Amino acid sequence: MFAYIVRRLIYAIPILVGVNLLTFTLFFVVNSPDDMAASQLGDKYVTPEAIENWKQKNGYDKPLFLNPDAAGVAQITDTIFFDKSVRLFAFDFGRSESGRDITTDVATRMWPSLAVALPTFLVGIGVNICVALMVVMFRGTRLDRGAVFVFVALMSISYLFYIIGGQFLVAKTWRLVPISGFHTEGQVWKFLILPVLVGVVAGIGAGARWYRTLFLEEANQDYVRTARAKGCSELSILFRHILPNALIPILTGVVVLIPSLFMGSLLIESFFGIPGLGSYMLDAINSQDFAIVRSMVFIGSILYIIGLLLTDISYTWADPRVRLS
Amino acid sequence: MKPVILWSDALIFLLVISLALFFWRLRRDPQTRERWAEVFSSRLGMVAFTVIAAYIMVALLDSLHFRRALENPESLATEEVFYDNKVTSVFDVLTGGMGERFERTYSAPFALLSFEKENIKDADGRDIRDFPPLRHAGQHLSHPDERAADILGKSVRALLWGLLLCALVITPQWLLLRGSRFPWLASWTTQAVILCSAVWMVSLSRHYHILGTDQGGADVLFQSLKGIRTGVLLGTLATLVMLPIAVTLGVMAGYFKGWVDDVVQYLYTTLSSIPGILLIAASVLLFQVYIDLNPDFFAVGMEKADAKFIALCFILGVTSWSTLCRLIRAETLKISQLGYVQAAHAFGVSHTRILGRHVLPNVVHIILITFVLDFSALVLAEAVLSYIGVGVDPSMGSWGNMINGARSELSREPTIWWTLTGAFFFMFVLVLAANLFSDLVRDAFDPRTSLRRASA
Amino acid sequence: MLSRLAAPRTRAALLLIGATLLAGCTDGPWNNPNPDSPPGLVTYQSVMTPLPPKHLDPALSYAADESLFLMQIYEPPMGYHYLKRPYELLPLGVEDFPEITYINAEGEIIDPQAEDVAYSVYELTVRADARYQPHPAFALDDRGAPRYLFKDASESRPYRQISDFPELGSRPVAANDYVYAIKRLADPFNASPMLGFMAQYIVGMEDFSARLKDVPRDGWVNLDDYRMDGLEVVDDRTFRITIKGRYPQFSYWLAMHFFSPIAPEVDRFFHNPGFLDRNLTLDWWPVGSGPFMMVKNDPNSEIVLERNPNFREDYFPTEGAPGDAEQGLLEDAGKRLPLIDRAVFRLEKEVLSLWTKFLQGYYDRSGESHGNTNRVFDQAFVVGPNGVELGAELASHGITVSPDVKPAIYYYGFNMRDPVLGGYTEERRKLRRALQIAFDTEEYLKIFYKGNGIPAQSPIPPGIPGFVEGEAGINPYVYDWVDGAPKRKSIEHAKQLLTEAGYPNGRDARTGEPLKIFIDVQSQAISSTSMNWMDRAFGRIGVQVEYRPADWNRTREKLLTGNTQIFSHGWLADYPDPENFLFLLYGPESPLICNCDGANNASYERPEYDDLFRQMRVLPAGEERDALVARMVDLYREDAVWLYGFYPKDIYLNNPWVHNNKRHGISKNTLKYVRIDDDLRERKREEWNQPVIWPLYAMSALLVALLLPGIIAYRRRLRATARQ
After folding, report:
1. Quick check: A156 and B407 CB within 8 A?
2. By C-alpha distance, which of C408, C339, C341 is closest to C370?
3. Contact B214, C529 (CB under 8 A)
4. Cys-Cys with A248: which of A58, A230, A318, C270 at CB 3.0–4.6 Å?
5. Which residues does chain B have within 8 Å of residue C550's beta carbon, measured at their own beta carbons?
6. pLDDT tens-digit profile of C198-207?
7. Burial of C359 by CB count in 10 Å (0-12 exposed, 13-18 middle, 19+ buried)?
């Protein structure tokens, strides 16, 4: 097991290098270091010297990928790419183009992201399972078909409408909760109610429908028929037999999402003014802050890889027959 | 008149034609026929399919572009014909100039007066502030009070025309398909509803703005209808664009294994590990730069917007490519273990032949399921991308752009709700139909579900 | 059985509702988004939008929303009178206006009127009562050495925020601090946006900058060790700045935050090892002598300012512009400033939230550096014949309005080197004028800016000398004076001009090809609705429009290379002087000529204009100068250099408890004048934010309604199975 994890982590290195290479290429085709300097320096009186100074200060005055002037290995190491990406592997994200320390920002912004994403995730699973169980109880009836239709309809509404609608009704018209904002002094929860509510409601359609399929799959298994033949009550079949068995695919299915909870939700965070990593990323895209984008891509990739790893591990845990090798 | 064929026009027609051919060929395969029959034997499937077909029809009509010829002034000796810079589509013509009746600014659905007060002169020539009458709404009314009766009368007349049109369209179908085992009645009902509302919309829009107008005074209903083409094209082209890469790589990885497999796996893991939104944003910006640097490639602005749109489709395709690739790889792995493939190997059949004969036909169902499943997700994604600012070009009407522009309108007093409603309705209907249809398709084609049904 | 399943959820829901109700009973409205402010302190609640400031180092920052903070914390040498219009320059951080001596190339003092002025020397004396805010950088230990100087990063690790330093100190502002600040502008390592521009004027700045380039950077470099020729510290409170030639506008520059004093020990403090990694930098923690000091800087959510206890004695002005007294702007005359204790600026990105919170009373004003009213909340008010009229809801809230005409202009310029539209022949002028007439600026502003803008008749906005009101001030090529108001010339006239220019009905008279114009726009700054509108506007004279949207970097590139036909641009003045606007048309400022980031993006070159500009630049205000300015404006109109232009007007809304809301178009240090009626605010908030409870009951009822039939149906089914 341990060896497997180590091997997978080593396998992650070339992936991360590839990710870096790709982000670098994409961003530097769009923005030359000169462009970056110009947009950081403002609109007025930007002189070539100022641009040179900025590039030197921020370490963008070297060649991108290959330094023909240097000798030997330095041809590769004395470049922007090498400089900037090697640091990432040491989890030193450096400074954003506007001069802030990214590691500090990521560390502080992670918590608001989690504060929203984790409750949404957990409450969401809980609600979805409850709803799906209720629907499964009526499987094969008109109620079941109607519910599935409602699920599909809920799925077909754009996320933006859930957010806009939620804010408009709950916060603006009914004045039940603050419309947006986040601060840690005092009652944090009152800022979380609406985003979590919106997140959960928006997820019911897809979630409950999926869980219903899983439950149904179990319900059609032989052991369920045996149990029913044995004379078990409907409810005990549902809770003793179907639910525990269906939990395994649910678990292995959602475990891949857990690490990405740290990244937060782009839309929820920017609409509700939550200072998390999702809105950090959006701001970085809008202001074309390459240093932040680079770091976020890196973090995102690592979390994704961890998610894959967790999924594999959860399989062995759920099903002892699976061995990792 | 000079036809204009945009890249996306060409691609969508190509797609439709190839799909038609594909199904024509598949017709002979009894198993596939059986499965499709299953999809269409449910009334829901029929209705969903009809709705999707209607949307696709609108998209296709809206993809027939041309530029109008300009009349040469008499004084000019030249015989050369010049064309309007504006690109028009057949759909624009069919809507009877719905999109050409502009107001000054906002107006509510079916309103006769503008939404905002203005300095106007009253009957006595004094300056007053009041809501000015609209230019293209209720012009024929002698008194504003007649509006309700007029709308009702015109609706009834429109419905009658609509029913006539339905009769024309549905009767031949009825003659042809009578006694078929499929629930055609459901489809005909849907067709009737769609046709009647289309006739109603076009005829009433001559006298009113059915969904009001937006800030610049443009008709909201028309914008929502124009969003159809963008939505449908994005949903289909993005998958189409990625299909060749995903299938080739997936099949190769699963079939050749070894280092090919390693490389392909590395590729898709790397791509899918990058947060999608960042990848999309970066690539869209990248393409924007390319367009800016090569403005001469594009004769009219529409072509520029279109190139950007194709690029967006491509990028969306690339980001969602890895899932399909992984599925195909796994399936191919399974197939290549099968006895008859092994046997073909033993007989020295060439790789290309094995791939074409045995492997490819057996992964088609995966492609199909992905195609339908991704469709609705892509349509929804467009709205989010517009919010982030990396969506389709603002000059190209899309629901995402409408939502994004109208976001702040809800905060007005009184609330301006019609832009959001228009976009919401048309988007919701399409996505709902697509989702329902994809459910049925998956149920019919997914071996797991069909297996389950067999055992149950 | 099912009820057992459902019960915990219902109970949880009830609990949640109960908790909300309880919370509601204890501390005010449920939807209060602001944390409780310290009791006894009057806190001003405001907003920063849509992005937090990026730089708060006065040498680095060059943006209005950053200036908003800097100008509360720092006091540059000069400032402006809060109420008087036209803008009046006043000494702020110094005792008096600068004393200017002129010298010739030989270094002899000469008459100010003399021809051969080579240098001007500005002598300034720092206020005796100016003192820095309490700050750890000034804290000394028992032996008089700085308290917080660390040898390595591990020593400084426990300190994460400025509030983590227990010991504080302060000292009076010294002349050397001003000199040090100018040296910081010159230090290439700081990459100040002012360096290139100021080096043209301040003697020795370029040299200084070049010398410092090679100084190794490991920690703090004491700029006091390096001499700059143009700077001289005379004594503790007096210093001199020498600039090249004559540059009367320099006094205005002294009113900008770039010239605020920076104490060297503060600079040294922030160069402590390890500080950079915790964002402890001068760029995030400004330290000044102004009315406020920064106590919290969390750019992700809020910035908090607090009254600077060491702020000098400063009083509310006792006289203002005509009409100010009637508006109650002199009610606080003679009171000690600042009038509030704290100011909280919250980050708000979404307009719906911003407006909802403002209307709920949680933000005191609608915005700081922007009123946020133009595009977002325009339905709230209309600009009628008698000024701004509020919508019903806002009027019932008692909201007041303060308009603000910034010394700024937005315009679409022609590229004067363009083969189709550019050039100086009479035909081309007519062509451009036809386009000018076709672009109905009044209508455009009405639709897209809610009437909040003034169509530009010249490059000089109102409030700046050289702006002429009334009939004399209209552009006679585009407007007629009818019934006491400017009236745009008719479309027929434009068509006529177009015909004379060789494009009858928008078609080239020789080839018949339709005239197509290309507009370069910034993709973020334009909407499809406004593009449609322009299409129609030019369509009226048969001209077709093609847009070339691009992001800011690409647009900038196009402007620098002159690769445009019609471009959009804007200019916000640094100081209230016509020179700052007329140089937008000065030939040598063209990016194609100076090979720099010049401001004359139209590449307008007319020798007469350039001559006039050079004369005007060095003249003191007066009739002679006004005549030159008028002539230059005439030339601009004759050549029709810009397609259209307008002076943006901004409207700020203020909740009824905020007083002294007059906007100063240029200066940002107006927070100290703001007064808040705290009791009224509490009352109104309570009144406006009564929650609507029925949806909660309705939702609970709905939940039950959904569950009940389920339970019943289930029971029935169970019985049915049992019977089988």
Report:
1. no
2. C408
3. yes
4. A318
5. 288, 292
6. 988 999 999 9
7. buried
What is the C-alpha separation between A271 and B410, in angstroms, rounded? Answer: 14
The SS3 assignment for B118 reads strand
Model confidence at C81: pLDDT above 90: yes
Of C29, C277, C301, the CB nearest to A275: C301
Q: What would the DSSP string read from start to end of C149-174?
A: --SSHHHHTT--SGGG----B--B--
Residues in chain A with CB shorter than 8 Å from the CB of C690 are 175
Kindly list the partner chains of chain C, i.e. chains with 3 or more CB atom pairs below 8 Å: A, B
Chain B residues near residue A297 by CB distance under 8 angstroms:
274-275, 278
The tokens describing B365, both together, are 């169902």
Confirm if C676 and C656 have CB atoms less than 8 A apart: no
d(CA C212, CA C101) in angstroms, rounded, equals 29
Detail the DSSP E strand segments found in chain A: none
pLDDT digits (tens, 9 = 90+) for A97-127: 777 889 888 988 899 999 999 999 999 999 9
B77 CB-contact burial (10 Å; exposed 0-12 / middle 13-18 / buried 19+): exposed
Q: Which residues on adjacent β-strands are paired with residue C102?
A: C110, C120
pLDDT tens per residue across span B133-192: 888 888 888 888 888 999 999 999 999 999 999 999 999 999 988 878 888 899 999 999
Q: Which of B66-80, C135-149, C360-374, C384-398 has maximum average pLDDT?
A: C135-149
Only one residue has tokens 């429908």, namely A209
Residues in contact with A317: Cβ distance below 8 Å, sequence separation at least 6, in sequence order: none
Residue C665 phi/psi, 5° resolution?
A: -60, -25
Q: What is the DSSP string of C529-588?
A: HHHHHHHHHHHTTT-EEEEEEE-HHHHHHHHHHT--SEEEEEEE-SSS-THHHHGGG-GG
- Residues A259-313: tens digit of each pLDDT: 888 887 888 998 898 889 988 888 888 777 888 888 999 999 999 999 988 888 8
Please name the residue that has the structure tokens 């906007």: C663
Look at B410 and A168 and tell me if their CB atoms are within 8 Å: yes
Q: Which chains sit next to B, with 3 or more Cβ pairs under 8 A? A: A, C
DSSP structure class, residue A259: G
Per-residue model confidence as pLDDT tens digits over C528-561? 778 888 988 999 998 988 888 777 777 888 888 8
Q: What is the pTM of this model?
A: 0.87
User: Does residue C7 have a pLDDT over 70?
Assistant: no
pLDDT at C20 over 70: no
Structure ipTM over 0.85, yes or no: yes
Q: How many CA atoms lie within 13 A of B108 on its CB side?
A: 10
Q: Identify which of A101, A185, A283 has the shortest CB distance to residue C277.
A: A101
What is the residue-averaged pLDDT of chain C?
87
Q: What is the pLDDT of residue C11?
A: 46
- Between the CA of residue B406 and those of B117, B208, B213, B418, C529, what are the distances in Å? 20, 21, 12, 9, 12
Length of chain A: 325
d(CA C193, nearest CA chain A) in Å: 6
* d(CA C527, nearest CA chain B) in Å: 7
Element (H, E) at A253: helix A243-254
C504 chain-B contacts, CB cut-off 8 A: 73, 75
The answer, yes or no, to whether the previous bond of B183 is cis (omega within 30 of 0) is no
Best of B395, B402, B415 to disrupt the C interface by mutation (most C CBs within 10 Å)? B395
Residue A104 tokens read as: 């500090």
The position carrying tokens 């309005």 is C401
Whether B3 has its CB under 8 Å from any CB of chain C: the answer is: no
A251, A257, A305, A310, C354 from A300: Cα distances, Å: 21, 12, 9, 15, 31
